[in-house]
Design brief:
Length: 312
């Protein structure tokens, strides 16, 4: 039985923008080997350092970084960590590797979405030298000390998303594939930012995770879910509802600005209804990036419409 004392996993709360339980990094310690799963954004580097120090470690004591995907809230700190500790091995999906080596495209698209809030939200993102990167496709095993992680390719949220599966512990580290739910809650908020969102592919990734029969899921936003079957069933439902809402707004003929406003208001109202404490509802609304989720879903329903129309 894994207890918190002998678990190889420690959750580090990165306290993003001063808000606890927004972004989690996981410290993995096994047989003298130390790794981080999703070290988070560059803006929370000092919090990450403090979390490592609480476990008697510094950046120099790390051996590897495992990335579920390269979005800045998960991987923005990698370049700075590698600059400080050039021995770090960084495991990432092959489609994401080139954006770690040259983050200019990633930063330009994030810059379009976040404007002058970029630095506050994500900090100074540095490139990662190619030699530090290990590109994965899914199907491999990554070993940290005595822990083996089976690598699953789980696109949907991002086309380069990986899930790390510890069969010994029966824990699936699913990044953002399982949405946003604070540990202990049941309310789920989708995370559907542009540009890769694809519902059909996403559901297949959820099938692949379910097929493992995990004892628990670990979500970056935020923490463990101990009833994976129920969580995944609720999440599928929510994703379908959100997509249907986005589609009906898109097809309504409203201006994009108006449709976006309606989407954000509808989801914020639903969140306030489902989450009783107002401060917690605001937490979900802020972390969920509702406008981004709207843009991601709009892009998806537009693409689907284009596909269904003959190219004449
Ligand atoms: Zn995320």
């Amino acid at each position: 039985m894994t207890t918190p004392e002998n678990s190889p996993y420690k959750t580090i709360d990165l306290n993003w923008t001063g808000r606890p339980k927004s972004i989690a990094s996981v410290l993995i310690q096994s047989d003298g080997v130390n790794a981080l799963l999703d070290p988070g954004p560059a803006s929370t580097l000092e919090t990450l350092r403090a979390g490592l120090a609480q476990n008697g470690l510094g950046v120099q004591d790390l051996h590897a970084i495992l990335l579920t995907h390269i979005h800045l809230d998960h991987a923005g700190a990698v370049g700075a960590l590698v600059a400080e500790n050039p021995k770090l091995d960084v495991f990432v999906h092959e489609f994401g590797a080139k954006h770690m080596i040259d983050p200019s495209k990633l930063l330009a698209s994030a810059g379009r979405l976040y404007g002058d809030k970029m630095d506050f939200l994500y900090g100074n993102v540095l490139p990662v030298p190619e030699d530090n990167l290990f590109a994965l496709a899914g199907g491999e095993t990554v070993t940290i000390g005595k822990r083996n992680f089976a690598i699953l390719y789980t696109p949907g949220h991002a086309s380069h998303h990986l899930t790390f599966w510890d069969a010994q512990d029966r824990t699936a580290f699913v990044g953002d594939v399982g949405g946003i739910t604070i540990e202990g809650d049941t309310f789920i908020m989708p995370a559907t930012p542009p540009p890769d969102v694809d519902l059909a592919v996403w559901n297949k990734s959820l099938d692949a995770i379910s097929a493992l029969a995990p004892a628990r899921l670990f979500l970056t936003h935020f923490g463990y879910q101990h009833d994976p079957a129920a969580h995944i069933a609720r999440y599928r439902q929510k994703l379908a509802e959100w997509t249907a809402l986005a589609r009906s707004l898109f097809e309504s003929g409203k201006s994009e600005e108006e449709a976006a406003k309606e989407f954000v208001e509808a989801v914020a109202a639903e969140t306030k209804h489902d989450v009783r404490a107002a401060s917690e509802a605001d937490h979900y609304i802020f972390n969920g990036g509702l406008y981004l989720s709207w843009l991601g879903l709009l892009r998806y329903v537009k693409k689907q419409k284009e596909k269904s129309q003959p190219l004449t």
